[in-house]
Every structure is written in C-alpha cells, then in structure tokens.
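Journal club prep, notes for RB
We'll compare a predicted complex against what the paper describes. Inputs for the nickel (II) ion case:
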Amino acid sequence: MYKNIFDTHAHYDDESFDSDRFELIGEMLNGSVCGVISCGCTVESSKKSLEFAERYPQFYAAVGIHPQNAAEENEDALEKIEELAHHEKAVAIGEIGLDYHYDYTPKDMQLEYFEKQILLAKKLDLPVIVHDREAHQDCVDLLLKHKPRGVMHCFSGSIETAKQLSDIGFYIGLGGSVTFKNAKKPAEVAAEIDISRLLLETDCPYMTPVPLRGKRNNSMLIAYTAEKIAELRNMHPQEVIDIARENAIKLFNIK
Ligand code: NI
C-alpha cells in the first residue's frame, strides 16, 4: 500500500457521501491518505470545507464561488468568501474559474467573479484553484494578466498551455482523467510536464480513475492515477505521490 497521498481537490460535502462520509474519511486517514483540500463551490460549501478542516488535522479548506454557482449566490457572496478566507485553515481561493460547457451563469458574470476572486487571492496572498471547462483561452488570458499563484485543476488543455502556465509558476492538477483511454491530452501532459509542477487530485466524488471509472471516487483511489503517471514517466508510483505531496505543501504553504 502507498502512503502520503495528498488530494488537492475533493468535495466530501457532496450528498453521495452522506451514508458513510465519516467512516470513509477515517479509513482514508488511517491508511494511505495524509492530506486533503476540501474545495468550496458556494458560500455554504466553503463553510463546510472549513468544518472538515476544523474536524480533521489533515484537512484544509479552499473557499470560493464556482462559475456554475455564481448566478445563484447573493450579492454579498464575495465579501463572505473574503471573511472565510481569513480562517487559519483556509489555504486557497477555489474552486473558481470559467465553465462554458454549461450556461447556468452568464459569461460576463463568470468572468467578473473569476477576476474578482483572483484579485482577492492576490490581496490575501493565497493561491487559486482554477476550474476551466471549454474556456481555455479566457482562463489563460486572465491568469497571465494577473499572475496569481495556483493550480489548474483537472487539467485538460494542451502541453503548450501547460508549459505556458508552468512558466508563470502555476501548478497542473491531474486526476482520474489521465487513466481514461479516450483522453489523450491529460496523459501527454502527465508524461511531459516538469514534475515539480504536478499535483495529484480526485475531484471526488467525480472523475474516478480506471479500473473503477463510473463508481464514486475517493482520495485513496489516487493510487491508480499515480500508477498511470509513474508508468508514463518510468518512475515508481510512490515517488510520484511523494513529489506531488511536497509540491502541494509548498503551494498551499502547509505547516
Ligand atoms: Ni471540483
């Protein structure tokens, strides 16, 4: 069994964990998992992320408004996020970004929320956790404009974009999609990026790696993602896990 898995992107407040959440987290933390960043998508889920972080020493919180949720939030949402971000276990602003696949939130509003939260992260000297779905160019443009510290989570862009981002010190978050047979780009990026820029993540309950694709994801299953990345890079999976953990500790300034 592996040790030291650091999951930089999880959603344990999701209802799919309602039946066994605390047993599952207990099993993870007694086993291969040493750290988890619980990501908020709304004011409410950001508060829940902080509750996990208060309950478990190994959990940390990201607080932020997800592009798909911005339209349903109250006008004072970003002020609330700023308050929550002052918590000692809030280590990032996220998950924030752009999602042009869905139109729950109009594009202008997504861009406004994204840019304001990048500026908030810079003001508080926190990294950002970025969601980009079918919005590569606008996302990269805003990141290159403001140059926050952070990670592009569940990276699905090209190797060229990955290099552009790592040149400004950005990290690349890879999860279950590197194991998917139909996803060539994530595997290519996993094989080629500078390993000092790599973070491992689940996005659980989603993005479960092969061979469990389709089932509910959890942080222990990062083992499959690490095995795939190790195979692509001719390394040992534990080495990939250890380096990714060190990278996470550095980016999120974990003491
Ligand atoms: Ni997510």
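Talking point for the session: DSSP finds nine helices and eight strands in the chain.
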